[in-house]
Amino acid sequence: MEENNFDVFVIGSGIAGQTVAKSCTEAGLKVAIADNREFGGTCANRGCDPKKILLGAIEAYELGKNLKGKGIGKVAKIDWKQLQKYKRNFTVNIPVSTERVLKELDIKLFHQSPSFLDEHTLLVEGKIVTAKKIVIATGQVPRTLAIPGAKHFKNSDDFLDLKKLPKKIVFVGGGYIGMEFAHMAVRAGAQVTIVDTGSRPLHAFDPDLVKELRKYSESIGIKFIFNAEPTKLKKKEKKLTLTYEVNGNEKTIEANIVFNTAGRVPALAGLDLGNGNVQFTDKGVETNSYLQSISNANVYACGDVSDKNLPLTPLSGRQGYVVAENIINGNKKELEVPKIPSVVFTLPNLATVGYSEEEAASRYKNIRVAYNVATDWFNAKRINAPLYAYKIIMNDRTGEIVGAHLVGPDAGETINILTMAINNGMTDKDIKSTIFSYPSWVNDIKNMV
Predict the structure, then answer these.
(1) What is the per-residue pLDDT across 384-411, written as a single tens digit (0 to 9) for each?
(2) pTM for the complete prediction?
């Protein structure tokens, strides 16, 4: 029984969980880590990393299409099977290499998600395990759509592993996952429809830029059905029929495959948190500023599963670091979160950081909003980019940049400079007086403020 007593037991092997486990074992603590899926977590195995690998070929295709007749004679086609094979070169070794690193640190590995028996005790792989501190870092899972036939939905994991791209695809949910996958699939030759319960996609992003992105998405063949409530999914031979209601009217759409992209929720099912006296809500495990459970002082939560989460990998790593520090040294380090950029990797990218226009207007007496569709600017024209727009929000009194929203080529990179500007209290004058390389996308921000 002694070997199943630990100082720290970590549930989840993504970036947050690994950060805790490595830091604690390096501090001399006896550590175990468990995961019911491949070690390495969502981002590396079945999330942001493999997504960006698939996107690389789509970016090359898009650039060639936009420059056809302007130096490019023939546009390449997307070979989906070959692209998936290339992606697997990056992902296939992640679980093995992750386990090897953890084992070399003398961290005990369990290949099952545990359940709480009491505040200190877990049941995992049929073994009773005790730990002085338990860390929940299980991330998020796809939101369940509770309709008849829901078992026929596929999810983001399935899309990223598609061996062959179906002819007709429906995505139920117009958030960042649905939009990113739709942009990939339509360029790879599929007929794509997004069905969403709201009146527009990407509700968390600036409405003016989303409007521009939606128009462009429609121009490349993506069809949108808004204010639609899915009610049933039926499978018949090789086709699926999704039934949905719009304004009380029942309608249907057929596809070869239907993906549930209606968002993600904290992965807490099966942990039996009640047995562990761990309070949680639909936002995640309820924690204090030290990321410690408000109801069980022996438990911490970090990453996407805590109620302090934003579903962003850099923040997960920071939360893991905070938890490790507090376990090792006592609760001395509180979570401090700067303004963090968020990017939708559609083509073009949609990126945001800081306050929205509405938030800024409620916070400051007067704001200045610089908004423009800049497709006629040099950087966009030189690659014949079909969409390039921005909205920069400033405190009118001080000139301080408080919000930035971009849609366009490399917006996912340019937003990082604006993030640094916001977190350092930079003003429009500070940006204008900075010398950037020219001609570059970043240099364009001098004309945006």
Answers:
(1) 999 999 999 999 999 999 999 999 999 9
(2) 0.95
**What count of Cα atoms within 13 Å lies in the side-chain half-sphere of residue 255?**
25
pLDDT band at 238 (very low <50, low <70, confident <90, very high): confident
CA distances for 109 relative to 9, 30, 100, 262, 304, angstroms: 10, 12, 10, 32, 21
What's the burial of 2, exposed, middle or buried (CB within 10 Å: 0-12/13-18/19+)?
Answer: exposed
Nearest 5°: the CA angle 364, 411, 317 is 80
Structure tokens at 31: 């550590």
- 3-class secondary structure per residue, the chain: CHHHEEEEEEECCCHHHHHHHHHHHHCCCCEEEECCCCCCHHHHHHCHHHHHHHHHHHHHHHHHHHCECCCECCCCCCCHHHHHHHHHHHHCCHHHHHHHHHHHCCCEEECCCCEECCCCEEEECCEEEEEEEEEECCCEEECCCCCCCHHHCECHHHHHCCCCCCCEEEEECCCHHHHHHHHHHHHCCCEEEEECCCCCCCCCCCHHHHHHHHHHHHHCCCEEECCEEEEEEEEECCEEEEEEEECCEEEEEEECEEEECCCEEECCCCCCCCCCCCCEECCEECECCCCEECCCCCEEECHHHECCCCCCHHHHHHHHHHHHHHHHHCCCCCCCCCCCCEEECCCCEEEEEECCHHHHHHHCCCEEEEEEECCCCHHHHHCCCCCCEEEEEEECCCCEEEEEEEEECCHHHHHHHHHHHHHCCCEHHHHHHCCCCCCCCHHHHHHHC
Question: Would you say 95 and 33 are in contact if contact means Cβ atoms under 8 Å apart?
Answer: no
